[in-house]
Amino acid sequence: MDKVPMTADGYAMLNDELKNRTSVERPRIIAAISEARAHGDLSENAEYHAAKEQQSLNEGRISELEDKLGRAEVIDLTKLSGDTVKFGATVTMIDEDTEEEKKYMIVGDVEADVKRNRISISSPIARALIGKSVGDSVEVSAPGGSRSYEVMKVEFI
User: Could you tell me which Pfam families the record lists for this protein (predicted)?
Assistant: First the structure.
């Protein structure tokens, strides 16, 4: 069973979602099923079938969350340091073609969010950056084509 690396924030986010799904969503769906049952014939009861579908999706997500939390390897970012890029690093880099500056934090798959500048450890950019230092050039083969970046800063925030 593979460990799932994540930050303490990522672990807390998954744990909060699990608590919400088990203590809020599950009872709400059970109540909806009970109410739909009271309407009579279940074979033609669209409300009942919709509630059962919601229940199935919710229980599937609960199982997925429990699995990820059970396999979680929480990495304490406060204990990380160094000059090379690794999990938890915040990397500032410059696109060598456009001179555009980008800043990403490398996090676990479950907490990746490009809008918040958090990229997955398994993404093409992160895989290319791992082990690099300030001044190194990296070639990233991404779905949008090949890009070259220069690492400007590596920090652990």
Answer: GreA_GreB, GreA_GreB_N
Calpha distance 75→78 (Å, rounded): 9
Please give the Cα distance from 20 to 153 (Å, whole number). 38
In CATH, what number does 77-155 get? 3.10.50.30
What topology is assigned to 4-75 in CATH?
Helix Hairpins (1.10.287)
Q: Is the Cβ–Cβ distance between 110 and 68 less than 8 Å?
A: yes
DSSP tag of 156: -
Give ranges for CATH 1.10.287.180 in the chain.
4-75
Residues contacting 7, CB < 8 A, separation 6+: 74, 75, 77, 88, 107, 108, 111
**CA distance linking residue 50 with residue 151, whole number of Å:** 51
